[in-house]
Amino acid sequence: QVQLVESGGGLVQAGGSLRLSCVASGRIFVDYATGWFRQAPGRDREFVGTITWSGRRTSYTDSVKGRFTISRDNAKNTVYLQMNSLKPEDTAVYYCAQSKSDFTTPTQYDYWGQGTQVTVSS
User: Fold this and answer.
1) What span, in angstroms and rounded, lies between the C-alpha atoms of 97 and 18?
2) Which of 22, 33, 36, 67 has the fewest beta carbons closer than 10 A?
């Protein structure tokens, strides 16, 4: 099985930055894409962005384009989510997940981390 562990969340002021990490362990699936999702209280889990195994293709939801960047270091089994110019509406629990392709819907992802809280104060 695959274990995914997110870290790097915390409290930051609006306009600040955070970098989340997602470390995979256990059975590593080569060619699996990694996605980032977030869920705010009372809201559905939403797609943030995704990156293919090679790192050559990324995609983002419109609300984070130009502010968030996903990258990966396969030698470290780690995927990063760099979040800049954070806004209060970015406040949520952030999850990483793995899937056979760079899908954008949560139900298409097979493995999930436990999440890390990001809180952006105004």
Assistant:
1) 19
2) 67
